[in-house]
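Extended Data, panel c. Modelled sequence:
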Amino acid sequence: MPISLATFNAYNLQSPGAPMHRKPRGGFTSWTADEYEKKIRWTAAMIERVDTDVIGFQEAWSVAALEDAFARAGRDIGRTYHLVARDGSPGRPQVALAARRSRFDVKAAAWTEQVPAHFRMRHGRVDDPGDPDAVDVRISSLSRPPLAVRLRLKDGPYKGSELAVWVAHLKSKRPLDPDRRHYPTPRGQPNPWKPYREAIGSALSTVRRAAEATALRMMLTDAMLAEPALPTVLLGDLNDATLSVTTTLVSGEPPYKLWSRSTAGGRGARTQIGLYTAETLQQYRSQRDVYYTHVHANRLESLDHVLVSRHFYDHSLDRQWSFRELKVWNDHLHDANRSGKTAAQWPGDHAIVGAWFDDNPAPRAPGMAALPAAGETP
């Protein structure tokens, strides 16, 4: 029986009238009752279309709104899906997870607010002009705390075994606003930072996303080394492309098997802690694939990802599932009315990505030679 996984940025799914993002001139954005009704109707329709066993949500502000969307889709929480979610405070959207009750029990779930205690991004001395490569980046908390859920399978050949599912949402590319504390303007003088505002803000966002990606990779590495036999999935809006620095930080760049004698997928260190992207698995299957999940300034970008451990990789010695197909629901990104910024005009600004895997354990051939414990040739 196949297992199906999806990631769904719900574009500020919040109850009507409840606060979301801070406005430049004070106060917070919110949905009207009419906007909320249209948003719930569209979200429910997409949940019904996607219909995967597991869905990871980003920008899920309200447990009640998620429950409303599932109920409208005819999938009442409590009867058809487990829902692991929490309400977000103003300015702090949350990630959430839904898992089909007929297939899974939820054994544990936790959001991680703080970076790991051993997190460091430092090199050299930044106050030494003779050290041109010096770096010192410090963060203590995560802007969108990732969610880790432990699921137990209730059917199929792996009944009783467990699966770790992470849901993540990294910092967006939207420029941060340089604040006056670090970029002061002399009283009565023009703002000297104005010509550089966009560049500085974009750089700050990039550094923040890289730091959060590093923290997430450290958490994944620790968890996967602690339980190497545990299949692991990450569903997320990583806000950058598959081969970007930040996304490859999260994936760990495991090797792909490209020819028969390659040992990729064996027992090497990168295979043990790496996550394979379903986008790449699909590209190896298809002669041509156009994959994009977000449109900005007429640029088609792939920001939303399904990443899986070696237990889902066709050529892994530890394979339990094999890749069947990937689907991307992105037609709404080209709707003629998407120039608006309200739920009534633009119900979603990201595509939904789903991936399907078949039960298909790797064969254990008699006399198979053991691969080296570390180091592998892709």
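Residues 3-117+144-359 form a domain with the Deoxyribonuclease I; Chain A fold (CATH 3.60.10.10). This feature is highlighted in the accompanying rendering.
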